[in-house]
Amino acid sequence: MDEAVKGCIEKDVLKDILEKFSSEVIEMLLTEYNEVETMNAFREEGRAEKLIQDVDGVVEEFGTSIERACKACHVSVKKYYAAKTMLNM
Superkingdom, according to UniProt (predicted)? Predict the structure, then answer.
C-alpha cells in the first residue's frame, strides 16, 4: 500500500492530497478492504446456515438420512459436513 501511494505521488496523481494525508488514505483503504472481506464472510456463513437448515429440515420432516436429504437438496454430503464444520456445529 505504501509503495502504491509513493508511486502516485511520484507520478503526480493526487500528489497534494497524498502528501498531506497518505496515512489516512492508507488506513481508509485498509478499513474498506477489511469491510468487504467481512461482508463476504457473513454471506458465506449465511449460505452455510441455509444449506444446513434445508438438509436438516428434510431429515426431520421426512425421517430420512443425511445422504438422501442432501441428494433431495442437490447438495453433496461433503459440502453439508463442510458447512457444519465451518459453523462449528
Answer: Bacteria
